[in-house]
Amino acid sequence: MRLTRRKIMGAAMAASIVASAPAFAAKPLTIGFSQVGAESEWRTANTASIKDAARKAGVNLKFADAQQRQENQVKAIRSFIAQRVDVIAFSPVVESGWDTVLREAKAAKIPVILSDRAVKVSDPSLYVTFIGSDFVEEGRRAARWLVEHAKKNPNRSYNIVELQGTVGSAPALDRKAGFAEVIAGNPKFKIIRSQTGDFTRAKGKEVMEAFLKSEGKNINVLYAHNDDMAIGAIQAIEEAGLKPGKDILVVSIDGVRGAFEAMLQGKLNVTVECNPLIGPQLIQLAQQVKAGKPVPKRVTVNEGVFPAEVAAKEFPNRKY
Ligand code: GZL
Question: Angle at CA 130, nearest 5°, toward 306 and 166?
Fold first, then answer.
């Protein structure tokens, strides 16, 4: 085809108009995020990771703190639906009671991502993906450390008190199950008391005081579902005139700064890492979901186990 001079000029003109047109920036992604609360060091680090990742990615983040109440999360999700956000993400404070509000999000064609904690729903299509830890494995790792440690005292039996996380929450249910699975059938280990400390230092201390009052020197081990409750319980153990980490072994989960400080003081024996720094992966998942790209139904994070012997070496590397 002969390109006439006029056609070439026309094409050049069109190209220059497009090039000079203001670059219309794509509308930023808007994510509505409902956070459990601010109950622990872990949660604070998790919130910071999500907010920092959203800022760096230019995401418009609408953030709601539920103060550990499910009704506040339901309200926040409904508000995100009304505001027509692009993606809803949330860390469900408890596993059940989400079907209705997630059906409303589905009807509004707003995709939902689960962050940190899972839900039990009748229809798995009510959320697109989950990113977080394997809490059952975290419970197993805590128990495996104790079983290994106990080999040093073959004739000794261990009476364990357990501080559970928030009643009905995935981490509490799963960490309890994982720990119990590993000690099942082994007469050396017995859980003599188990009660929720709601993942907070204050409640952990209060419940440990009650355990000490009723069981006293009969207790050899504290298994706490998170470091904050363990740190509160350590105060109660000391106030009872006992040595945490020695008279009562302290086994915990999260790997927060406070746990490393307690290990350096000889008051906590091991913390099983639960990584809160999932902000960048969460934002990336939301961007993929919004772009209609396929994402895995479950994205888990890699985690370690930190006994007191490695605390001094590892502490400078900690990021939360
Ligand atoms: C675990 C997270 C738990 C932490 C607690 O992923 O949901 O909630 O272990 C926090 O510290 O309160």
Answer: 60
